[in-house]
Amino acid sequence: MRLTRRQVCFGAGGAIVGSALPASGSSPVVVDIRAFAFEPAEVTIRAGETVRWINHDFAPHTATDDEVNWDTEELEKGGQATIRFDTPGTYPYFCAYHPHMRGSVVVTT
Amino acid sequence: MKTITLAAALALGFAAQTVQAADKMNDLEIAHTAYTAGQIDIRYAHLALAVSENTEVRAFAETMIRDHTAVNVAAGDLITKLNVTPQDNDLSRTLVKGAADKRAELMSLSGKAFDCAYAQNELGYHQVVNQTVEGVFIPTATVEPLKDLLSEALVTFKVHEGHAEQMVNGLQCG
Questions:
Q1: pLDDT at A13 over 50
Q2: Torsion angle of the four alpha carbons B91, B159, B12, B18, in this order, in degrees rounded to the nearest 10
Q3: CA angle B118, B148, B134 (to 5 degrees)
Q4: Taking the domains of chain A in order of start, what are their residue ranges?
Q5: Domains of chain B by range and CATH?
Q6: Is this prediction's ipTM beyond 0.85?
Q7: Which residue has the higher pLDDT, A13 or A101?
């Protein structure tokens, strides 16, 4: 099994990829990628909190912003990526490899 | 619906041979055939990338390479873990022969004719493979990890079948 871990900070200035995220004070909200679906398809977090995507499928997937402002990059089976959202709004996203897979992150103040 | 019927008709004779050849296979033969089926689709995809200029067809082919490679890597990991050697068999040989004939046919085509032939073959191929995996391989497999792998792979293959159907419809092959 190949494990990948990626952490991304997404703020008003766009996506910033780094080796570690500043502590947000809360655990990430987890979105499981299973059977070609994001579960749950919609998550709601407060600004400054994080979402973690974990791929359980054989097929590699991504979670990619509709506007391509942020992206987990490729997640192999067992791979995970965490993204912090600092700006309130609704962020629809999809899998770049299987575009029928869709989800959204709602960020409140 | 028309495309489904056409692809099903094209695949029918092959499916009958496939199911017949799949009868009474052991775990090592099933593993060999499942792996072979993935490799065959990867080769079809490489051919599509070499010939097609259609964006949708190329994207589908790239997905086939990516996903089938991932499934076959998992299959390889399982084979290593179980320390077994998959066994070649009549069904694997039938698949390989059929794929060689189909590749020769596809290589004589270009443009939309190629795209339509590739798309229809992908739909028919996935229908036959899915029918065999779900109806024969999973019920027949006796080793639990193999059964699990096939079940998880089937999820991927069914998505491919749906994607292939959309591709056929989108190409409006008539």
A1: no
A2: 10
A3: 45
A4: 5-108
A5: 2-13+26-171 (1.20.1260.10)
A6: no
A7: A101
DSSP-derived secondary structure for A59-89: S-B--EETTSS-B---B-TT-EEEEEE-S-E
> What's the average pLDDT block by block, 10 residues per block, for chain B (174 residues)?
42 54 84 97 98 97 97 95 95 96 97 98 97 96 96 97 96 88
Could you tell me if A12 lies within 8 Å of chain B, comparing CB atoms?
no
Read off the pLDDT of residues A15-57 as tens digits, 9 standing for 90 and up.
443 333 444 567 999 999 999 999 999 999 999 999 999 999 9
pLDDT for the residue numbered B69: 97
Written as six digits, the tokens of A66 are 């509709």
**Token pair of B84, please?**
């077994």
In the numeric block, the tokens 């703020």 are attached to A11
Window 43-72 of A: residues touching B by CB (8 A cutoff) are 57-60
Helix (H, G, I), strand (E, B) or coil at A51: strand
* Closest Cβ opposite residue B67 in set A35, A59, A100: A59
Q: What is the CATH number of domain A5-108?
A: 2.60.40.420
